[in-house]
Amino acid sequence: MDSFEANKIFGAVLGTVFVVFGGSLLAEGLYHSEVPETAGYAIVAAEAPAAGEGGEAVAAVPVATLLASADAARGEAQFKKCASCHAGEQGGENKVGPALWGVVNRPIASHEGFAYSAALTAFSEGGAVAWDFEHLNGFITSPKGYVTGTSMGFAGLRDDADRADLLAYLRTLSDSP
């Protein structure tokens, strides 16, 4: 091989490197994206209860105090968070969660046709415990904190006013509210 052939090979390699790196610089200049101020969305996740906690953690404000200023119309707006997994209409089908028509004062883990988690079934004590406002308030505050081992993936409603409005709306979901 003479020096002319070696120069052609060296030039071809050098030209290829130039095209690849030049193309990468050009593409970076054309398609450059700025780093956002905040990275994505803030995801509120339920905190796992510490060892020895869980079971029946109740919100600090008594439910009677919450319900005194509750508004079912505002609760209907809060229910939209629930509607992706629960039906609210009479005769509604079970979705990911059971239908919530008539849930207030219904025995826990008793809706027909829904397979409840073992933890919620045990919590219901065979249907002896009902979804009264105290239990609903505690469960909606933090489902996994209130019934350890439940399969409900919702993080809970921490705001007292939002939770009270939702409880007032859940009460309207029955034949005789």
Percent in helix: 40-55%
**Overall strand count:** 0
Number of separate helices = 7
Poorly predicted runs are 51-59
Q: Quickly give the structural class.
A: mainly alpha
What is the makeup of the main sheet? Answer: none
- pLDDT averaged residue by residue: 86
Q: Which range does the strand content fall in?
A: under 5%
Task: Please tell me about this protein's structure.
With 177 residues, this protein is an all-alpha fold. It has 7 helices and no strands. The model is unreliable at 51-59 (pLDDT under 50).
Q: How is the secondary structure organized here?
A:
Blueprint: H1 3-30, H2 63-68, H3 72-78, H4 118-123, H5 133-141, H6 143-146, H7 160-172
Quickly list its features.
mainly alpha; 177 residues; 7 helices
Short description:
The protein is built from 7 helices and no strands. The chain has 177 residues and is mainly α.
